[in-house]
Write the structure tokens for this entry.
Amino acid sequence: MVSKNQIKRITSLQQKKFRKQEQLFFVEGIKGIQELLDSNFELAELYTTNPELFAVDSSKVYTVSPAELQKISVLTTPNTCLALFKIPEPIAFEEKGLLVAVDDVRDPGNLGTIIRLCDWFGIKTLYCSEESVDVYNPKVVQATMGSIGRVNVVYGNLKQFLLKTKLPVFGTFMDGKNIYKEQLSREGIIVMGNEANGISKPIEALVSHRIAIPRFGELQATESLNVATATAIVLSEFKRNF
């Protein structure tokens, strides 16, 4: 049985202030949970209709009915399990190789996809501006498909970070230089901007290399690319060159 207090506590984790207060976040689904169990994240509690799904400490496992799982799930059609994991302390990172930074990315699906792309392309660190959506938002976690356990996501003052870095800073702009013709480097920080406004003016001033993904359509009518789509293209081009 899941008590009313447990239901209230778990569902409250949909909000950032309660995640911060409890230092917990949740993930749903067998694959996502197993990915985090195989990472450095620490399991706090597991709620499942099948307690034999995972090899974990039985004291942390709560067997629930599908109806009870429905009450704590954020999915329209709940999976067979939901787990709470402890939010870890921030991990220090090295400024070397390629890093990705996001400037005020607000959509959970976009941030989750960008984390997954970082994992795919071997980017170890994703630096997020303080205004960006919380990495432990359930929709972000779900969209990462487990990659959250393999990418170090850091939050901080992006302007101050870029002011201090010795790495070249790349930013995507409509009037930037054609990325397919530019000499790209093995090291650098790739800045991706807000969904509606792109890279903000204070951050734009710190970009040393302005690049663009050219439009090939005859009408040239599309205003911009989705930020996650653009990130995939940019990372692919950087990695293709080295």
User: Anything to note?
Assistant: The longest helix spans residues 227-240. The mean pLDDT is 94. The beta strands are 24-28, 43-48, 61-63, 81-86, 98-102, 125-129, 152-156, 169-178, 188-192, 209-212.
